[in-house]
C-alpha cells in the first residue's frame, strides 16, 4: 500500500517493527523480508518511531496482523492523531476476545477517534497491488464522509476504491474467507479437483453470510468485493498464504505459515468459538478448526463434509439482500 501511494505521489512513512526492514527500505528501497523483489517508490521511507511515522499524516493505514493490534494500539494510542482517518486493513479475529480489528480499535481508542475509523478490504494480494495490476477494494465506514475521503486518498486508475457502510460485514467476510481458503488449499493439495473447490467456495458463502447477519451486518455484503470477491481470490491462488497453508496441510505439514502471516490459522479458533457462542452453523470453518486445533486429519475433515446428511441447498439468509 505504501508503494502504491508513493507511486500516486503521496509522501509515505512506514512504521516497521524490524530495524532491518527500516534500514532496507531507507537504504535500498526494498522490503526484502516481506515484499522481496520490488524497488519501492522514492516517496516511501521507513522509521522505527511511531511519532515520526504519524507526524503530519493525513491518513493512517494500520496493517499489522490481528493478534498484535490491541497491544500495538494501547502502546501507541497517545501518539496517534485523532482527526485523520484511521484505515484498518487487517483481516482476522482476535483469538482471546473474538473481536474484529475495527472492534479492537473502538474498544482501545478513546471516543474522539471513533468517527475516523474505517476498514479497507477486498481481493488485494499485496504483490499484485505493488505490481500496479488492476485492483478493486471497498472502504467501509460508519461516517460516509470518512469513506469518501479514504476513497479519494487511495484510488488511482489501477486501484479502485468503492465505499460502503457495513463495517462489521466487511470485516467478518475478510476473516472467514481466510479460514475457507485453508480448506480450499487443502482440497487442491489432495487433488480433489475444480468441482470440489467451487463447492467449497459456494457453500462457504452462506457460512459467511450467516455469521455476518448474526453479528448485525448486511447479507448483501457477502455478494461484494469483501465477500465473494476476496473469497474466490483467496480460495484459488497460490499467492494466498492461507491457501498455501491448506496445501501444505494436505502434504502432511503442520499449520505453520513461516514468516508471512496466514491469519486463517488463528482466526479458525476464534470463528469456532464465535459460531458456537452465536449458534451459527459453519461446517467448513469448523472442519478447518478441527484440523488445526483439534488434531483431526485434514483428509478426514474434508471427507466428513461430503458425508453430512443430505439437505436442501438453503440460501435463505441471502434472500434478504435488497
Ligand atoms: N499481504 C496481503 O496480500 C494482504 C492483503 C490484504 C490484507 N492483508 C492483511 O494485512 C495484515 C498484515 O498482513 P501482511 O501481509 O502485511 O503481513 P506480512 O506477513 O507480510 O508481514 C507481517 C507484518 O507484521 C509485522 N509485525 C509482526 N509482529 C508485529 C507486532 N508485534 N506488532 C506490529 N507489527 C508486527 C511485521 O513487521 C510485518 O510487517 C493481515 O491481517 C492480512 O490479512 C494482507
Ligand atoms: O495471503 P492471504 O491468504 O493472507 O490473502 C491476502 C489478501 O487477504 C487477499 O485479499
TrEMBL record:
It catalyses: sn-glycerol 3-phosphate + NAD(+) = dihydroxyacetone phosphate + NADH + H(+). It is an enzyme of class 1 (oxidoreductase). This is Glycerol-3-phosphate dehydrogenase [NAD(+)]. NCBIfam families: PRK00094.1-2 (NF000940), PRK00094.1-4 (NF000942). It comes from the Eukaryota. Substrate binds at residues 91, 241-242. The keyword Oxidoreductase applies. NAD(+) binds at residues 68, 126, 241. One of its GO terms (cellular component) is cytosol. Its EC number is 1.1.1.8. Keywords: Glycosome, NAD, Oxidoreductase. The active site is at 177 (proton acceptor). It is found in: Glycosome. GO terms for biological process: carbohydrate metabolic process; glycerol-3-phosphate catabolic process. One of its GO terms (molecular function) is glycerol-3-phosphate dehydrogenase (NAD+) activity. The keyword tRNA-binding does not apply. Its main location: other. Residues 166-302 form the Glycerol-3-phosphate dehydrogenase NAD-dependent C-terminal domain. Belongs to the NAD-dependent glycerol-3-phosphate dehydrogenase family. Residues 1-146 form the Glycerol-3-phosphate dehydrogenase NAD-dependent N-terminal domain.
Amino acid at each position: 500500500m505504501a508503494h502504491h501511494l508513493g507511486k500516486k505521489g503521496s509522501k509515505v512513512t512506514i512504521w516497521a517493527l524490524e530495524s532491518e526492514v527500516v534500514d532496507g527500505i531507507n537504504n535500498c528501497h526494498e522490503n526484502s523480508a516481506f515484499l522481496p523483489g520490488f524497488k519501492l517508490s522514492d516517496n516511501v521511507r521507513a522509521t522505527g518511531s511511531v511519532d515520526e511515522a504519524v507526524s503530519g499524516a493525513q491518513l493512517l493505514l494500520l496493517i499489522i496482523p490481528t493478534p498484535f493490534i490491541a497491544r500495538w494500539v494501547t502502546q501507541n494510542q497517545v501518539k496517534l492523531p485523532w482527526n485523520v482517518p484511521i484505515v484498518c486493513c487487517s483481516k482476522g479475529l482476535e483469538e482471546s476476545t473474538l473481536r474484529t480489528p475495527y472492534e479492537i480499535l473502538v474498544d482501545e481508542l478513546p471516543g474522539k477517534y471513533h468517527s475516523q475509523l474505517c476498514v479497507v478490504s477486498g481481493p488485494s494480494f499485496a504483490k499484485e497491488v505493488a505490481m500496479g495490476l488492476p485492483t478493486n477494494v471497498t472502504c467501509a465506514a460508519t461516517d460516509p464522509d470518512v469513506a469518501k475521503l479514504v476513497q479519494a486518498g487511495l484510488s488511482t486508475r489501477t486501484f479502485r476504491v468503492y465505499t460502503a457502510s457495513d463495517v462489521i460485514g466487511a470485516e467478518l467476510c475478510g476473516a472467514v474467507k481466510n479460514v475457507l481458503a485453508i480448506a480450499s488449499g487443502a482440497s487442491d493439495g489432495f487433488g480433489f479437483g475444480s468441482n470440489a473447490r467451487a463447492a467449497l467456495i459456494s457453500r462457504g458463502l452462506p457460512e459467511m453470510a450467516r455469521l455476518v447477519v448474526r453479528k448485525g451486518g448486511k447479507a448483501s455484503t457477502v455478494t461484494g468485493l469483501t465477500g465473494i470477491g476476496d473469497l474466490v481470490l483467496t480460495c484459488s491462488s497460490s499467492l494466498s498464504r492461507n491457501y498455501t497453508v491448506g496445501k501444505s496441510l494436505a502434504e502432511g505439514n503442520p499449520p505453520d505459515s513461516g514468516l508471512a502471516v496466514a491469519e486463517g490459522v488463528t482466526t479458525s479458533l476464534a470463528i469456532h468459538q464465535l459460531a458456537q457462542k452465536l449458534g451459527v452453523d459453519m461446517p467448513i470453518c469448523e472442519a478447518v478448526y478441527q484440523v488445526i486445533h483439534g488434531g483431526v486429519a485434514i483428509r478426514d475433515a474434508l471427507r466428513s463434509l461430503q458425508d453430512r446428511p443430505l439437505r436442501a441447498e438453503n440460501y435463505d439468509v441471502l434472500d434478504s439482500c435488497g
